[in-house]
Give the backbone structure.
Amino acid sequence: MDREELSNLLPLSPAALHILLSLAVEDLHGYGIMQEVKRQSAGQCKLGPGTLYDNLGRLMQSGLVKEAHKASEKDDPRRRYYRLTAFGRRVLAADIERLKAVIRDARRNLRPAEPSKSS
């Protein structure tokens, strides 16, 4: 997939970005994703089940995430695990580069507030 096709998926929504980041290290089940998103964002982003599973459905349709095998046979059979695909990793990396550019521009363009002049 070329850069133009990747850019059609960008920018990722905040929820999608956090979900992909949570899956970048290991396969996780839904509750595990919610906990990892909360941990990575220092509690700033909390995904509810509806938001999580709606986003997972879209990410799976786009080929960014796929269902993975259970971590062990002892796991609850109802628990589904999710994995970041190689394509999902490329999209995540592209969005991270986009965000770095936004931050670079913001740092360059933001100037300290001028001190107020006392009368």
